[in-house]
Amino acid sequence: MELTKEKLLGFYETMMTIRAFESKAVALFAENKLPGFVHLYLGEEAVATGVCANLGTKDYITSTHRGHGHLIAKGGKVDLMMAELFGKATGYCKGKGGSMHIADVDLGILGANGIVGAGLPIAVGAAFASKYRKSDAVAVCFFGDAASNRGTFHESLNMASIWNLPVVFVCENNMYGISLCQRDHMNICDISDRASSYGIPGITVDGNDVIAVFEAASEAIKRARRGDGPSLIECKTWRQRGHFEGDPAIYKDPAEQQSWLEKDPLPRLAKRLIELKYATQTELDQIQASAAEQIEAAVKYAESSPLPALTDVLTDVYAG
Ligand SMILES: Cc1ncc(C[n+]2csc(CCOP(=O)(O)OP(=O)(O)O)c2C)c(N)n1
Ligand SMILES: [Mg+2]
Fold this sequence. Notes:
Blueprint: H1 5-30, H2 45-52, E1 60-62, H3 68-73, H4 78-85, H5 119-132, E2 139-144, H6 151-162, E3 167-173, E4 176-177, E5 180-181, H7 182-185, E6 202-206, H8 210-225, E7 231-236, H9 254-261, H10 265-275, H11 281-303
Parallel strand pairs: 1-2, 2-3, 3-7, 6-7
Antiparallel strand pairs: 4-5
Helix pairs in contact: 1-2, 1-10, 1-11, 2-8, 4-11, 5-6
């Protein structure tokens, strides 16, 4: 697929929308306006954007506890997301799920998930269903570096491989699982090496370069769609905030944090767009302003929405 001006500007808009949503969440959380936990995606915007730009509505994604970026990139509605973060009745889960339970099945978003590594077998199930129904839908699973140590990762890659399923495993290697850096939780550098154990392709890309992510995902998704099976893409990136809002992240080396802030995916794409003469700084500023406006409108919607009624406490809640 050619990387046209429209496509690259579209990447910038999506990344800016994620950034505006997450930056607003930082402020709202600090003001004590969000009742639940939030795990933010600031710094990792290029991954969800580059991958989801290859997907249509019929394709599936599974997300994580750090899921806002995946949802936005797959077309999730920011007003319903924001209302859910506020715990309001107009939110995606009617205010009862919060950030980690947002799903939109009509958009192929099979859900954020508070259980680390839980999205992997769900994506394998969606890919199995797609193959069984002879649909050409592809499932993409986002997960973290630490999640790749879980049994669900190994079982899912093995099963996807033996059944040749249309699934792409996207590891967001932000170098940390909570406070534990990658070198302390595994003895390998590249998580993509794990693919070879299951006989599937594995590739590592710069996860802060949206074009590199887009191109790697494009190849893996095309391969899955034409029936050639699963692959693993490792995107090396960096979480700019703490593990959750409120975590001061004192375990991070300030020099390393600084060096990654210099590799921030948004200014990188902005520089590229200007070099290619696809946009002027003023046009990029306009994209930023309109993303901020969209998020302000979402906050207004959330703030003016009612809390769930007390009488609804037990509705939409599964009983075992
Ligand atoms: C099964 C399970 N074990 C432990 C936890 C606690 N926990 C929440 S997030 C997290 C670390 C996840 O790290 P990673 O997969 O790298 O994702 P990141 O937070 O870096 O995006 C852990 C251990 C959990 N939620 N679920
Ligand atoms: Mg991580």
